[in-house]
Design a protein that fits this description.
Blueprint (H helix, E strand, L loop, with lengths): L22 E7 L6 H14 L4 E8 L9 H9 L3 E7 L6 H8 L4 E2 H12 L4 E9 L3 E4 L5 E3 H8 L2 E6 L5 H14 L4 E8 L5 H10 L3 E6 L7 H7 L15 H9 L4
Parallel strand pairs: 1-5, 1-8, 2-3, 2-5, 4-6, 8-9, 9-10
Antiparallel strand pairs: 6-7
Helix pairs in contact: 1-2
């Protein structure tokens, strides 16, 4: 197999410089239930500990009828950002556009969401915008009536993106697809592992070695169940300095987490 990329190869995703993690930052995932909310809370906690004014915005919260805590409620409990906003809530646990349609409620309009986010960016050092599901989930509609996705929000705002990924089997393909989709759109991106297992297996270490060039953080499994005070003190240790953390050597991190398994 040739070591050189063919002419049609997709552009490699670019990691943002540290300064690009200020302003507006999008948090998306390779899929649903990968840990976006807890990662958002961890970045918010680390940034606030570094002295930044932080806001967290959830454009579309679905599944309100389930009675589970909303993403903003979880983030508030864990990190207590200075400002939190949910722009729209829908009863059913579906993609936001589908949830709006089923509930016969107004869908999220792209430029109204953009304006709301930019308004908070004028008043904060860091605005974290948590998406729903993965990068191409339909979020709402444009003025033309066409649907828009989290990827469209990233390109419209011209912002860097945190991709939250799983640690286990299947993550390499899902992460590569997400990073490729962002690179095609010229969106700088970094990856955070949403839940690193307490007893990692060979597949986890193999995936880690592949993901390290893109990694800007990794949270331990169960981080969202921590006491909020412990969570806030611990969050910087899960993130690299580009995300206001202190994790600066993945080999050292692996030795501490590996307990002889790697």
């Amino acid at each position: 197999m040739s070591a050189q990329a063919p002419p049609s190869a997709q552009p490699a995703p670019r990691r943002p410089e540290s300064g690009e993690w200020r302003g507006i930052v999008l948090v998306t995932g390779t899929d649903t239930e990968v840990g976006k909310t807890v990662v958002t809370a961890a970045v918010a906690a680390a940034a606030q500990a570094a002295g930044l004014r932080v806001a967290v915005i959830k454009p579309g919260q679905t599944g309100i009828s389930t009675g589970e805590p909303t993403d903003i409620e979880v983030i508030t409990r864990l990190a207590a950002p200075g400002t939190t906003r949910t722009l729209a809530e829908y009863p059913d646990p579906l993609a936001p556009l589908a949830a709006a349609t089923v509930a016969e409620m107004p869908p999220l309009e792209l430029y109204e969401v953009v304006d709301a986010i930019r308004a908070e960016a004028d008043k904060h050092d860091l605005v974290l915008v948590e998406g729903a599901g993965g990068l191409l989930v339909p979020m709402g509609v444009r003025p033309s009536g066409e649907s828009w996705t989290v990827a469209d929000l990233a390109t419209t705002l011209g912002i860097s993106t945190i991709v939250v990924a799983r640690a286990g089997l299947g993550t390499l393909n899902h992460t590569a697809l997400t990073l490729e989709a962002l690179a095609r759109r010229g969106v700088p991106a970094g990856v955070v592992i949403g839940s690193w297992p307490h007893d990692p297996e060979l597949v986890h270490w193999a995936n880690l070695s592949e993901l390290v060039p893109h990694l800007v953080g990794a949270l331990p499994a169960g981080a969202g169940r921590m006491d909020p005070g412990v969570f806030r003190r611990s969050a910087p240790g899960w993130l690299t300095p580009s995300l206001y953390g202190v994790l600066d050597n993945w080999r050292t991190w692996a030795e501490e987490f590996g307990e002889g398994h790697h």
